[in-house]
């Protein structure tokens, strides 16, 4: 089975569940610095499980995230941190993935 590689430019179009994430900045200052693993995603939110086992629901709008692409799926063979404005991910995850397939044709 072929492993799909993710580039930083394509990350907003990929599945985010399972990636490590940190809230770089948010309209809600209590969320700044929050980090963990993405465990779910909706059109408007990302659900993050922290290392302490807490689950936080973070709005995409008005939030800047830093996602870590693990070395096993990055094109460089090392972990890559990618800063993404949550506003560009405001859509249903399955629709973003469809858009990636269209852009690759």
Characterize the structure shown:
The protein has a single domain, classed as Ribonuclease P/MRP, subunit p29 (SH3 type barrels, Roll). Helix content is 11%, strand content 35%. It contains 1 helix and 6 strands. The chain has a 6-stranded antiparallel sheet, with no helix packed on it. The model has no long low-confidence stretch (mean pLDDT 85).
Q: How can the largest sheet be summarized?
A: 6 strands, antiparallel
Read across the widest sheet, the strand sequence of neighbours is 4-3-2-1-5-6
CATH class term: Mainly Beta
Q: Any idea what the CATH architecture is?
A: Roll
- Treating each run of at least 4 consecutive H or I residues as one helix, how many helices? 1
CATH superfamily: Ribonuclease P/MRP, subunit p29
Can I get a quick summary?
The chain has 105 residues and is mainly β. The chain contains 1 helix and 6 strands, in the order ββββββα. A 6-stranded antiparallel β-sheet has the order 4-3-2-1-5-6, with no helix packed on it.
Topology, please?
Layout: E1 20-26, E2 35-41, E3 45-49, E4 55-59, E5 63-69, E6 80-85, H1 93-104
Antiparallel strand pairs: 1-2, 1-5, 2-3, 3-4, 5-6
